[in-house]
Amino acid sequence: MSDPIDVDAAKKWLDAVPGGEIGKRLDRSWQDFAAFSDPVVTIYGSYDTGKSSLLRRLLIELGQEVPTWLTISARHETFEVNEIRAAGCVLRDTPGFVSDGTDARAKMNTGRASDAIALTDVGIVVVPPQLATAEYPVLRELVQQDWVPESLWFVISRFDEAGIDPDDDPDGYRALGEHKERELRAALSLDGSVPVYVVCQDFAQMAGTERNPDPTVWDESRSWDGISELLAAISALGSAWWPGIRQAAAQRFWRSSVQQVLQQLRKELTAHLENAAVSDEGGQRRASWLAQLDMLTRASEADLRGRVSAAVSDAVDSPDPAQSFAQALKTSLGAWHAACERDIDKLLRSVGDAVATERTRPDWQRFEEMAATLRHEPPGPDAILDDELTYAPVVRQVGDAVLNALRHYEQTRGLKATSPTPSGVGVTPSVDRMAAASAGIASREVVDFGSGVVHALRSTSHVER
Prior knowledge:
Elements: H1 7-16, H2 22-34, E1 40-45, H3 51-61, E2 82-86, E3 89-93, H4 104-118, E4 122-127, H5 136-143, E5 152-156, H6 170-188, E6 196-198, H7 227-239, H8 243-316, H9 321-358, H10 362-374, H11 387-416, H12 428-464
Parallel strand pairs: 1-3, 1-4, 4-5, 5-6
Antiparallel strand pairs: 2-3
Helix pairs in contact: 1-2, 1-8, 8-9, 8-10, 8-12, 9-11, 9-12, 11-12
GO molecular function: GTP binding
Organism: Mycolicibacterium gilvum (strain PYR-GCK)
Protein name: G domain-containing protein
């Protein structure tokens, strides 16, 4: 047995957990349970172990009417936790749990059964005669909780299906029952304080699916089917149950609640740490892409300055500097634009390939689901940006600036042509004006171009994130 848990401290700790006063909600559940003045006996087990047929047999033997909610069927019929008072106890029937169930109904039934066994004075665990091992992990976890002696029982149910006919070989039937009990105790590490009953609640299915059969249908099997021993134990509990069982139930309930919440918090912490790592990794990649983009911007600026300077230099010695400059600049800008477009396309393809690869990773998909939850929206289809539409305005801005500079030069050249010019310096004012125009393009518009590209890629990165 574990050391006693401080219930008040457990409630305060649970209320401090983010999520909305978990301790108060659990306390309301406990108070509803504590309102029972009789001991609560919960029948618990996996699907199709014979829980409902066992309860029917107990009620019939006690001379009680079987309620309409109790259905006997080979199908999965029990979906709710139902209760009935009998033999001085509150007997509860539960849905069958499904070990590692993934569908919605399995999870719902398992959750309801788990909640019921967590709030009970006595638990009766029903297992099939084959002792199905798939449920052992769940049952081992249940056994390890703080059950006081005589508060956890096991029933090996429908034992006439174990393989030996009790009518033909009663000794062999009894020996097989003892063997199965030893096997169950060894598998789940059950000590002597945990009673194990071997029962046959409906020999040869004589009662079938009938809700209220005549009890005489079991007269031939009553001497050996084990129901009398189980019924005597339940009646003894109802007639003289001691408060220690309810106190032990409180300790078990609050300890289990704290453990479950703590386990969930650890899972969430692991998930958040994984998401944080994915976010940091993505942030580092984004910073790397922006750095590459910045390098491309600076390189394109330097290249544009060089091309404009070369065009100016070539125009100086030309008979028609304006025409020569315009032609050279047109050729240079075309080559410069093509080179920039290739570099940017290459970077975009690299970014797109990396993002596409990331999104195939399970941890990245979980990160996107978390991000969608924070945005209160479902993850939508990936946004697709048209590279031409993204960068065309930026390139068009540079082209317009060049044309404006050339127009300015032509206007200035026309005005200056009517003024006398000192001998020997005829080309210098024109060259100066072209230099000024090209300097204006290189210093102002290239910077605008770089800023536009950075803004465009950042927008792309934001959408892709």
